[in-house]
Every structure is written in structure tokens, then in C-alpha cells.
Design goal:
Blueprint: E1 11-18, E2 29-33, E3 37-42, H1 47-56, E4 62-69, E5 72-73, H2 82-88, E6 89-92, H3 104-115, H4 120-133, H5 149-161, E7 167-171, H6 182-192, E8 197-201, H7 205-211, E9 214-218, E10 223-226, H8 229-233, H9 238-246
Parallel strand pairs: 3-8, 3-9, 6-7, 7-8
Antiparallel strand pairs: 1-2, 1-4, 4-5, 9-10
Length: 253
């Protein structure tokens, strides 16, 4: 039976080890990121979790194994093809790096203007629609320095989403927010994932528990993908049990 494009994984890793500076050899990762839904990367806080996320997005190199992006072997993607890959797999770093010299609306429409895909009026209309979905309530004429952490995060997400990528890859987007602000991002990501993919490295375990369609655990000696939070909790793996025990007093759980 032939797999339809909607059923094919948007990202697939086999025996993957990211190019990452550390003395110990990181464990190999096998995973399939579906074209729709939310996949959470979980593990102890640190650079290793982020390294796997960047590698899965094609941001950093593969040390070992195979990585397929949009059905293409990353080792065979040439320089002319990478710009298209970058627009389809939008990576959002933890720093939410808005340009300090541009106001809110200019930050959001920057990718559209750079790629010359729409006129300014069309770009602004798309930006306003995204910001409405994100429940943005700030002044779009302000510079980032005068905005709250939530507003900067919302603008950064809108900027990443404005080219309508097939996937959003996000590095701890909740880390600067207050607990009462979490639902704003949760609602957007839940709705986005109805038609596209979200791959998110996070310590927001309640989000993984309630929203994730798949969970990838990244440990010191183990990496494994699970079809749900419950499946991970029931795995019986000692490293996963130790991870859950570490967080069992966290209000997220």
C-alpha cells in the first residue's frame, strides 16, 4: 500500500547522533515526526536536548546516522535546495531573536519581504491574522525592548509561521513566560497542529501530557519515541522513571 504525502513523516531519523561537543557519545535516535500533530522532546535540561532538536531541523550537522527532511536525505541536499527546506521547517530558538531596530509588525513580516513572496499589504494581513490566532494584545509599533516576554514570544512565533511552513520546531518557547500565560501558546500550537507539525523541546510537562501526539525521550543512555505520554510513563525504563521522579513534585504533573 502506497503511503499518501499526508501520512509520510515530515522528519525521520535513523541511528541519528547530532554533531555535538561532549566527551561521551550521545545515544542514537530513531524517530518519525508526523506531518500533523505535536511531538515533544523531553529530557533533563541542558544542551543535549537542544542539540537533537537543531539536528532534526537540519540546523546543525549529523555526526552519525541518517536524517530525512521532507523525504530527502539531508546528506544529499545541496546549497540550492536548503533555502526551500528552511522555509518549510521553521526553527524558533529559545532566544526569540527579534530585531531590536524593527517594530513589532516589521519583525513579523520580515521573512515575507526578504523572500519577496507577497506585497506589503498582503504580508501585513497575514501577520495580523496570525497575531489574532496568538491572542496578541500589544502595540505593533513598539520596539521589542518595550514589550513583555509574552509579546516578544508571540511575535517570534508569528514571524516563524508567516511563510506557512509545514513544521514549527521550537526550543523551549515557554521558558520566559509566567504560568498564567502558558494557555496562549498552548491554544495556538494545538490549533496549528491540526494541519501541520509541531516539534518542541520543552520542560513544560503538563503540555506534553495533555497535548502531545508523540513523545521523544532524550536521556543520557537512552532515546526512544512513544505514541503518547502514557506510553512513556508505562515503559518501565529506569532512566525514564528517574526523570519522572525528578519532576514528580512539579505542579506540571
Amino acid at each position: 500500500m502506497t503511503t499518501s504525502p499526508a501520512q509520510q513523516p515530515i522528519i525521520q531519523a535513523s541511528d541519528l547522533v547530532p554533531a555535538y561537543r561532549e566527551e561521551a557519545q550521545p545515544p542514537q535516535l530513531d524517530c518519525r515526526i508526523a506531518a500533523q500533530g505535536i511531538t515533544c522532546l523531553l529530557g533533563r535540561p541542558g544542551q543535549r536536548l537542544d542539540a537533537y532538536l537543531r539536528c532534526l531541523g537540519g540546523i546543525t550537522a549529523v555526526r552519525q546516522g541518517q536524517l530525512l527532511l521532507l523525504g530527502q536525505n539531508s546528506a544529499q541536499i545541496d546549497a540550492r535546495q536548503w533555502p526551500r527546506i528552511r522555509t518549510q521547517l521553521a526553527y524558533l530558538s529559545r532566544a526569540t531573536p527579534l530585531l531590536s531596530v524593527l517594530n513589532g509588525i516589521e519583525n513579523v513580516i520580515l521573512p515575507v519581504r526578504y523572500h519577496g513572496q507577497q506585497r506589503r499589504e498582503e504580508a501585513e494581513a497575514i501577520a495580523h491574522d496570525l497575531l489574532a490566532q496568538l491572542q496578541y494584545q500589544g502595540d505593533l509599533q513598539q520596539l521589542p525592548a518595550y514589550m513583555s516576554s509574552l509579546q516578544r514570544t508571540q511575535l517570534a512565533i508569528a514571524r516563524a509561521a508567516i511563510l506557512e511552513p509545514r513544521a514549527l520546531l521550537m526550543d523551549h518557547p515557554f521558558h520566559e513566560l509566567e504560568l498564567y500565560e502558558y494557555p496562549v501558546l498552548e491554544d495556538f500550537l494545538h490549533n496549528w497542529a491540526h494541519t501541520r507539525a509541531v516539534l518542541i523541546a520543552t520542560q513544560h510537562l503538563h503540555f506534553a501530557k495533555t497535548c502531545a501526539n508523540s513523545v521523544v525521550f532524550i536521556g543520557d543512555n537512552l532515546t526512544q519515541q512513544f505514541p503518547s505520554w502514557e506510553a512513556m510513563c508505562q515503559s518501565g525504563e529506569p532512566e525514564i522513571e528517574a526523570f519522572l521522579k525528578l519532576y514528580h513534585d512539579n505542579h506540571d504533573l
